[in-house]
Write a sequence for this structure.
């Protein structure tokens, strides 16, 4: 790439691959588009994001976590509506036979853009008309020979066992497993509403044109919560505590504005207290992973973009160098899924409501967050360019989501400093911290390498640590990532100091 300035997204992807955040899937066989593995650095961050979601969305609310199967029989997805509706508009070029997502081609066409055309969510016939109107060309062979638009179902299909016809799919959302297990869980927990059940897991969609790295993948991780409740009571226990807060919404003209949560519920912008509370939780999660408030907003989805199962959706969108991307969708799924599964399977998925002396099929509000898009937003918003003070690019990850708590160095690999640094490494690991020992290269170079993957603290064992006559004997230095300043800390206090700084979110030296 010599001589050519990389875009921010390309630069980030380059760093991510060089520094073990990400590895293109099946790389040695040519990396089919839309698949990424997480390397050791990326995996450590991803686990922390998932655990943050668990803490905010499940543990703090007293909800249940489950893990359901990736492969489900066809009937599950017939009942859920995915077999019939989970499709994207596909167009083929008659000349070169390449296939494309029709709405994306129109979005990229200059004349359509100038006209303000909005092809997202349009039916195939309307898209075919736009292709003709704007003489949209094939992006590969540049000929205006695109066919009529048709639907392409995005689910990966397989067969269970050796008998043909036993059709199954890799789930396109983790939610369905929760609906399938709902009746057993609610029974085991006293048959009471409301109840929240969530899971973190992989979903797969055979996207026509995977693009923009982690934004549109063919296999990805979702963190989904299904909150089951009696539709006659749309209140939420924690609402009183957050109703005075605000949320940032994107207006119809695209301009963001702040709105009080109670006003948003009263005006119908947000369907109910439950949804409001769960949107507020999403705001808290994004603020704590280092995405500034002015870089994200919620958006009420227009009816034509709302999924087939939803009575109303509010998306969360983040500004990135790829443009604004949807990172979470919160849907009021009503009783759509439970009622459909009950009908097709014959299972009773209702709950007896004591006060009403009758059985009801609960309604569901579902906040669904994508881990990979969240991960990408963290890279985007924590990336820092070189400055005079720091001659290298680095990541300002909040310490709680950094890949390691600390890196441990001997100042030099001699005079017992390396053995002592190994002891410090073992001591910190025993205290539950994730640390990594490094002794190659100059100390400055090691600080730079730690900064480049966002490690908040570097601990160095030096001559004074070992020198019995020194007043600094038995101490080490902690160097803080954001300002490069150092303090000396007694070995006996090191683990608790680092844990305290992580909790505080501190990545600059204390005064
Ligand atoms: N259960 C509801 C559901 O699946 P969705 O809006 O299709 O709703 C929810 O997906 C979230 O999953 C999205 O907001 C996004 O973060 C993530 N997601 C969806 N498709 C994705 C893809 N192809 N690649 C990466 N993440 C994706």
């Amino acid at each position: 790439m010599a001589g050519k300035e990389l875009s921010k997204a390309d630069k980030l992807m380059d760093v991510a691959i060089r520094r073990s955040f990400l590895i293109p899937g099946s790389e040695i066989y040519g990396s089919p588009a839309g698949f990424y593995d997480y390397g050791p650095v990326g995996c450590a961050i991803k686990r922390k994001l998932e655990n943050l979601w668990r803490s905010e969305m499940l543990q703090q609310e007293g909800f249940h976590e489950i893990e359901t199967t990736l492969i489900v029989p066809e009937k599950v997805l017939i009942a859920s509506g995915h077999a019939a509706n989970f499709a994207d508009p596909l167009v083929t070029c008659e000349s070169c036979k390449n296939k494309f997502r029709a709405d994306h081609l129109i979005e990229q066409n200059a004349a359509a853009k100038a006209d303000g055309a909005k092809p997202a969510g349009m039916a195939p016939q309307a898209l075919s008309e736009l292709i003709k109107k704007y003489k949209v060309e094939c992006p590969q062979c540049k000929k205006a020979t695109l066919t009529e638009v048709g639907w392409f179902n995005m689910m990966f299909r397989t067969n269970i066992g050796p008998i043909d016809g036993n059709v199954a799919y890799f789930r396109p959302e983790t939610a369905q497993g929760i609906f399938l297990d709902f009746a057993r869980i609610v029974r085991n927990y006293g048959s009471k509403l409301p109840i929240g059940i969530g899971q973190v897991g992989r979903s797969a969609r055979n996207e026509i044109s995977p693009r923009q790295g982690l934004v549109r993948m063919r296999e990805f991780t979702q963190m989904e919560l299904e909150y089951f409740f009696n539709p006659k009571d749309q209140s939420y226990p924690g609402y009183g505590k957050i109703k005075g807060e605000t949320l940032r919404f994107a207006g119809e003209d695209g301009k963001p504005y702040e709105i009080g949560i109670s006003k948003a519920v009263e005006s119908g912008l947000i369907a109910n207290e439950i949804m409001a509370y769960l949107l507020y939780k999403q705001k808290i999660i994004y603020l704590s992973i280092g995405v500034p408030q002015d870089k994200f907003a919620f958006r009420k989805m227009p009816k034509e973009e709302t999924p087939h199962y939803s009575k109303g959706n509010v998306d969360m969108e983040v500004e990135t160098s790829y443009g604004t991307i949807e990172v979470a969708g919160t849907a009021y799924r009503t009783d759509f899924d439970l009622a459909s599964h009950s009908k097709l399977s014959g299972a009773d998925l209702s709950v007896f409501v004591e006060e009403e002396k009758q059985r009801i099929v609960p309604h569901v509000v579902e906040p669904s967050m994508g881990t990979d898009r969240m991960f990408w937003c963290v890279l985007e918003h924590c990336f820092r360019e070189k400055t005079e003070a720091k001659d290298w690019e680095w990541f300002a990850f909040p310490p709680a989501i950094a890949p390691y708590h600390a890196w441990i160095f001997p100042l030099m690999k001699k005079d017992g400093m390396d053995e002592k640094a190994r002891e410090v490494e073992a001591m910190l690991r025993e205290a539950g911290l994730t640390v990594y020992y490094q002794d190659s290269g100059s100390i400055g170079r090691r600080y730079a390498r730690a900064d480049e993957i966002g490690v908040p603290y570097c601990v160095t064992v030096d001559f004074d640590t070992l020198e019995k006559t020194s007043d600094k004997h038995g101490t080490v230095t902690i160097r803080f990532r954001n300002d490069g300043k150092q303090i000396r800390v007694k070995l006996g206090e090191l683990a608790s100091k680092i844990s305290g700084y992580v909790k505080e979110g501190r990545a600059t030296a204390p005064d």
